[in-house]
Amino acid sequence: MTVISISLSNKLLNEIDNLKEKMGFSGRSEVIRASTRMLIADNREKEELRGDMNSILVLIHNKQVEDRVTEIKHDFEDVISTQIHSHLRENKCLELFILDGDAQRMNQLSKMFQTSGKIEYVKLIII
Fold this sequence. Notes:
By secondary structure, this protein is α+β, with helices and mostly antiparallel strands. It contains 4 helices and 4 strands; from the N terminus they run H-H-E-H-E-E-H-E. Strands 2-3-1-4 form a 4-stranded antiparallel beta sheet, covered by helices on one side. A hairpin with a 4-residue loop joins strand 2 and strand 3 (92-102). The longest helix has 20 residues, at 28-47.
């Protein structure tokens, strides 16, 4: 097995340690391998989506990155039907996007948020 080095925040490392204990993983590497497999399977499933559909995209982000959210969403107005923005505790924001249209465009939108490095939580829910 290949060994790699990754950098993680203390908060994320604590979450991994908690998962390890609660779920009975043998070590941190096992948690990371399971998480990676889940991300790959989720991505593969979304890549296979075709045609027009409806979905909901949920984001949680720091208030300071609202400009980046706005920048990304403007490139996807063709599939965004409705956006709901709500302020949460600790300077966080919740965004709900109701999407309608091309499945691949929705997948691209979700990926843009996931890979921006600025969004804490991204979940595309297929309806």
